[in-house]
Amino acid sequence: MDFDREIREHYLRGHEKFLRHISIDCVVFGFFNNELRVLLLHAKYAGHWALPGGFILKEEHMDAAANRILAERTGLEKIYMQQFYVFSEPTRSTRKVNQQFLQNVGISYDESWMFERFISIGYTALVNFSKVQPVADVFSSACEWFNIHAIPELILDHREILDKALESLRTQINYHPIGFNLLPEKFTMPELQRLYETILDRKLDRRNFQRKIIGTGILKKLKETKPGVRHKAPFYYKFDLKKYQRALKGGMGFES
Amino acid sequence: MDFDREIREHYLRGHEKFLRHISIDCVVFGFFNNELRVLLLHAKYAGHWALPGGFILKEEHMDAAANRILAERTGLEKIYMQQFYVFSEPTRSTRKVNQQFLQNVGISYDESWMFERFISIGYTALVNFSKVQPVADVFSSACEWFNIHAIPELILDHREILDKALESLRTQINYHPIGFNLLPEKFTMPELQRLYETILDRKLDRRNFQRKIIGTGILKKLKETKPGVRHKAPFYYKFDLKKYQRALKGGMGFES
DNA sequence: CCAAAAGTGTTTAAAATACACCCATGC
DNA sequence: GCATGGGTGTATTTTAAACACTTTTGG
Questions:
Q1: Domains of chain A, with CATH numbers?
Q2: Which chain C positions come under 7 Å from a protein C-beta?
Q3: What is the pLDDT of residues B196-226, one digit of tens each?
Q4: CB contact, 8 Å: A19 with chain B?
Q5: Per the confidence metrics, is the pTM higher than 0.90?
Q6: Residue A151 contacts B where some CB pair is shorter than 8 Å
Q7: pLDDT in tens, A157-208
Q8: Is B88–A56 a contact, with Cβ atoms under 8 angstroms apart?
Q9: Gyration radius from chain A CA atoms
Q10: How far apart are CA B76 and CA A249, in angstroms?
């Protein structure tokens, strides 16, 4: 098969293109139907889900590598991404994952750079859910969104990476334009509140939340309301990006 | 010379022991005489100061590597260290630094792993100043403390790394036992306040600071006072480590 | 006795919290 | 017409900020 050839090539010659020992794993967050979700790939042969990941080209900036890796999975350019932690357990290894796989492709451990030790740089990515077209890579049979509260078993230490990413998202909420990157251009106040509640993992008071957010001046209220709801129609809002960024410099004051 | 042999060995065979393409740079903070200081090495031949750094052994955890690297520079074991950022500019390179040096040792670019591209993991370290014995390594002619406000020119992107470390220290002050690791076992309230003021880079009100810190319950006041001062003698305090750690979980509420 | 820095409390302003009723829409 | 969730304001508590005089010590 064609992808088998591509995979063999990657295992046998990848180290000519990429930096050895370093991988990138991405935790891609999206928000839809008032649920925070994460994009996962189903790793062939390994039989488990995994975070999308990849490697750094020899002359490429790490941030560029992260963007390139995700552009292929999501169809998006210029994704908002932040490195958040380096995972360096010497025992984290692609070996155990790929035993079956190895046999199929016919590569032995000492033939491939892929079975050397790797440290992995964790990146969080924030995307506009509705603009993403999930695409599996050659190592994967599927690419899907999962609710943050219903994550399946993951390979390697990917669960640990995901948990750390969530923790990082919580501390970033005061200093990074998380709402701007996760929500569509127009959104309602209750949607914004659900997003904050999901990330902070606690209920917020409607009235106090509204007052606080309005008080920061980061929103522009539109005349338009959300149609097709069977209750009072909520207004749409947009972000005032300049004021948002100004406000983030001083922190937004949401403690977890 | 003996160290020349050691250096040649490192350049020519280091990749057999260490992971290629990955280095660690440490920003070591100490506090003394009410000044926040950083430990720097004077790089031979390069003629500039540099952060202490090193590499990861092939089967070593990255945190262990960071600790090993600093143990050799400071004489301390179990140093409190945190990774804070990865620096990955493809143009950051040891090449330009070591031209002169190379000639002296007689190694050409393509002979050594040390001239390949490196990404560097930045670590902050917090140490008890008075317990450190600065020791230069084979690449360095000196190892000294510098006041954070009087940093000399540094090689490569080390100034950027240092600045980012300081920024990171500021955000960590609410969630990490920074005082505990930077101060000696016994310390006075004004010393603690200077530490906070230096890190946050702003003046704090004495009375409000004292009330806030006492209110967290993280301190034990001793009967003993600091001798030999030509004014009213301040009391010594110790940290109540259990309460300190409990308080840090919820954040200490010092905003920068 | 004087300079230098430490100890201590109260008042005021700002921010966070708690809480309840009316309104618009789809079914 | 009713169930669902959205919109809105006020009172209370908590937390942060501003501020000045007295005390101790070494020189």
A1: 2-172 (3.90.79.10), 186-249 (1.10.10.10)
A2: 3-10, 15-20, 23-27
A3: 999 999 999 999 999 999 999 999 999 999 9
A4: yes
A5: yes
A6: no
A7: 999 999 999 999 999 999 999 999 999 999 999 999 999 999 999 999 999 9
A8: yes
A9: 20
A10: 37
